[in-house]
Amino acid sequence: MMANRRLAIAGCVAAFAMSYASVASPAPLVFGLISQLIFLLPGALIVRAMTPCAGWLAALTYGPAVGQALGSLMLTLLWVAGGRESWLMIGAPLLAATLAWPARRLAGRFRLPVTEPGDSIALAALLFIVPVIAGLPFAHVGEITANGVDYRAYFTADYVWRRAVVIELAKGDMLPVNPYYAGDALHYYWMPHVLSAVQYRFAGAWATLDELLLVRSISIDAVFVAFLYGMIRTFGVRAWASAAAVAFVIMASSFEGLYALFDYARHGVPLRDVKNLNIDAISRWWFQGIPIDGLQRLLFYQPHHAVGYVIGFIGLLAIARRDRERDATAFAVAGACLGLSIAISSFAGGMVTVGAAIYEGAAVLRRLDFRRAFVHAAAAAVPLTAAVAVTYALRYVDTSGSVVALELNRMAVRDFFRVTLLSFGPVLLLSLAALTGLRRDRRGVGIFGALAVSCVIFYFLVNVRDHQDVYVGWRVGHFMFMAATVMIGLLFERISALPAPQQKLGWAAVALMLAMGLPTTAIDVYNTQDITNHGPAPAGRWTLRLSPDDRQVFDWIRHNTDPKSIFQLDPAPRDPETWGYLPAFAERRMAAGLPISMIPLRKYQEASHDVRLIYDEPPLLAYERSRKAGIDYIIVGPPERAVHPGVEERFDSVKDLLPLAFRNGTIAIYQVRR
């Protein structure tokens, strides 16, 4: 057993070492890992103080997420107070670590997982899934080729946006400035990105932003997978079944890949053409339903959501796994976790909080214990109210228009049963099988039923219109997959206890579901790392390429202009492929742009319509419009020339007002003189 444990741990460490080495050079890697580790340790100390006799498992699986969430909060408070130097990376975790002392008073209030002999092997084996899923995709992010720098298209929505947010935060303004709308604050849940911003401020001279972000992504992926394992173990599921359940849900989440292969074979289309599919969104592109992304996509590009999800689930477990039926302290802890979830990933945190309210509300109604309801609601309301106040104080929400619509989402009911079966099939079928045999001694599993009710309400009746009516589906899918890991872990354990003939039948059914679900993840992993595919996609091309001329322009801008200067290009012809061109790569703000992650979108559309007139109107009017918009530099590249013939001749005719500041083979930059 000892030899197997050492082999599993050594293999896991080696796999992670290879993944880390593929995304960062030695100095940024060491710096990134140390600064991440410093943020993980306080949480482990806090959870360990709460479970002094439970061994290492709870501290290792729950603690890192607690440390990340609390560290992000402390770091943001110090940031708001004016801190901008590298000491923040030590100060914030130290503040979080002080909570380990009072956390000792919480010992015995919650039933957290107790370490067993098989945990180290099972967890080490499970963590292999992070390098398997994310290793190659991360290794090819921002890869330098003979023709430029390439980013797979899956990353342009979330990863490129993450670059833009971190770059803007690193400039140090409080409140952070909206790089896509002059004179506006950044309306986005930016708290989880402050650590990356501090890292970049400190190490930007010798570490690329891609290196820092990818080291963080791998680290948070490990935190997320470890938590899922610990969550299942909390319900008494054995180690092997817990690891197998997490692996199954991540590796075999949907039938979409199998369906695409079958459909291509039926119509004589070469199977290799699946590389031209957004495979985990077939339900959207082929059937116009709401897409449900598997957890592999959370590992690819959404570490901020992963932290928000996990701390929210810890809040749910604090309610479901408390030892005392009436416990205001437990609900204060749960409210703090749910509040952190709201501050880190606001919409998702709201969904989890509604699930917690449904669970406790149902318990109160069963016993008609309204005094308990008042005590618990009051205890949880304090941190939750503080969290909502923080999100408004930090200007997360743009009040210039309607952000969320309470209405029937017609995409949610379109071809519902087929879309759901395709997107969620293997996991859904095993979860339904698990429901038939839940044991009464698994007290607390009902919390996932309450979360499912919350997800159903949001899925059908809450809509984020400017995200093409599909935003809620991504959050719902991730939550349902996370909850399903517990159900499937219980199912695996139950199958292992069946008589031999029934056991063989049960494992055969599981193997069939695994085989039918694997193609989606296998195709997704391949496509996400494939930066050789530059063919047309539904939005731009499958791979975003920044040419050598682009890179030369970025270098000139970063070394010759003020970091807070405003640049402008024409947002319309660059949407949706290079919408993040300036803020994410040139590290400069725009007077107006079309960011795909910002809502409400209308003001960006109107501002972009006005500002793009500078490319067509007479040069004196273009100059006056540029000045009024606060523009310092105007970019003319291939998209602008194609849409606005003669634009450079017009600008060149007023060289005293719009002098040429830079030109290379394909791009010209004009300065707007004051």
Give a summary of the structure in a few sentences.
The protein is mainly alpha-helical. The chain has 31 helices and ten strands.
Describe this structure in words.
By secondary structure, the chain is mainly α. The chain folds into 2 domains: 2-529, no CATH class; 547-671, 3-Layer(aba) Sandwich (Rossmann fold), CATH 3.40.50. Helix content is 63%, strand content 5%. The chain has 31 helices and 10 strands. The strands form 3 sheets. The chain has a 5-stranded mixed beta sheet. Strands 1-2-5 form a 3-stranded antiparallel beta sheet. A two-stranded antiparallel ribbon has the order 3-4. Helix 4 packs across helix 5. The chain is globular. It starts with a helix and ends with a strand. 53% of the residues are buried. The model has no long low-confidence stretch (mean pLDDT 94).
Q: In one word, what is the shape?
A: globular
Structural class by secondary-structure content? mainly alpha
Major β-sheet annotation: 5 strands, mixed
> Share of helix among residues?
55-70%
Mean pLDDT score, rounded? 94
Count of extended strands: 10
Point out poorly predicted stretches: none
